Amino acid sequence: MSGYRTAACSAALCSAALLPLAGAATAHADDTGSLTADQISQRSHEALLGAKSLHITAKGDLRSPGSPTSFDLTLDRSGNCRGSVSLGPQGSVEIVKRGADVWMKPDAAFWKNEVPGGGSALASLVGNRYLKGTTDDPVLRATTGVCDLDTFQQYLDTSAEIPATGLTKGTPTTLDGTAVIPVTATEQGRTYTLDVAATGKPYPVRITIARGSAVPDATVRFDGFDQPVPTATPSPAETVDISGLMTRTS
C-alpha cells in the first residue's frame, strides 16, 4: 500500500501550500481587512491550526507535476474521518473512520495498482463492499494517515521555517458568496494565492497554486470548520471483515 501512503502525504503537501504564506507578526484587529498581508496570513494560519474539525477538498498536481491527486475529506481530532482519495489513473478509495474502526472501498484501479500483488484475490471477495477492520491492521492503518487532523496541522505548523517572498494583499472580493481577502506569494517559481475569510474567524477559504499559468495547477478548499464528522457508517451488509478475508486468502 505504499502508493496510498503517498496519497496520505499529499494531504500534508496540501497543507504545506500555506508554508510560504506564514508571516511572523500576529495582529489583534477585529477587521481582517485592516490587517497587512503578513498579519492576514498569520491569523489564517492560527485559525486553521485551532480548528477541531474541517472539510477539505483538493485537486490538481499535489504530489508532483503530471501526477493528479484529489481528495474530499471531513476529519477531526478524535480520529473520525469520511470521504475519498483519488490518485488519478492509479485508482481511488472511499474511506470511513470512527475512532479505531476503518472501512475502505477501493475501485478496481486502486486494487490493481496500489495493493501488493494486484489485490485480485481480495478484490474478487470484497466486490462492491467496504473492507472493514481497525487501525491495528497494517493494510487499513496505511489508509488512515490522511484522516489525522493533528498530523495535518503539525505539518502546517512548520510554516515559519520557509521564508515568504513577495507577500501581497489583494483587493477584497467574494468566493462562492463568502467575502474574502486574497494574499499572494511566490516561492520557487510557484504563485500561491490564499483567500481568507474577511469576516468572523479568518479561516482560509481557498488556496491555489500556479506555475506560470492562468489556470491553477492545484486548488485546495476549506470549509465546515468545527462541524462534526458525519457519524453514519456502512451497514454490515455493505462490509466484509478483513480478518476473515486474510484467513481465506492465506
UniProtKB/TrEMBL annotation:
Protein name per Swiss-Prot or TrEMBL: Lipoprotein
Signal peptide (from-to): 1-29
Domain of life: Bacteria
Keywords assigned: Signal
Gene3D superfamilies per record: 2.50.20.20
Signal is among the record's keywords: yes
